[in-house]
Amino acid sequence: MPSGLAQRIKQTTEFDSPAQEAMLNLFVAAAHVRRDIEQVCQDFDIHFSHYNVLRILRGVHPEGHARCDIIERMIDPSPDVTRLTDKLVGRELVRRTRSEEDRRVTIHTITEKGLALLDEMQPDITAIQEKFGERVAARDLEHLSRICEGIYSEYDTHS
């Protein structure tokens, strides 16, 4: 009998290996959760990447980050952070200032309007997190986190 993944992606042949099946399962699960978050973002007229930048800047508020620091912290790093932040600055969700120490460096900080947007989005984001938590036992959530950390830490050391 085909696995749940094989049925979902309508695959009729065996997977090449358990690693292939697990990796594809990870892709499908991540895409499913991300679509839910992207829908919330769309409802608030922003993209997932904008939400990610705002979330990063909220974490250091009232301080800010330079472009390179934002890229290092992004879930899905984008080389075009300048374009992303330009849109956020245009909507007055982020403020851009020159660094006092190095005038070549631009610091991005979240504005009160940006914080208010994240606060408004938070109940919907929390609902998705709770839905996720209801589908996975608490001990499995911790185990899943350790597995994922093992996967991406290995990639980080080879980058």
Protein model, in words:
This protein has 159 residues and is mostly helical. It is built from seven helices and three strands. Strands 1-3-2 form a three-stranded antiparallel β-sheet.
Write a brief caption for the model.
The protein is mostly helical and 159 residues long. The chain has helices spanning 4-8, 18-43, 48-58, 67-73, 81-90, 112-135, 138-157, and strands at residues 65-66, 94-98, 106-110.
Give start-end ranges of low-pLDDT stretches.
Answer: none
- Which bin fits the share of residues in helices? 55-70%
The pLDDT mean sits at 92
Total helices: the number is 7
Overall strand count: 3
In the CATH classification, which architecture applies? Orthogonal Bundle
CATH C-level name: Mainly Alpha
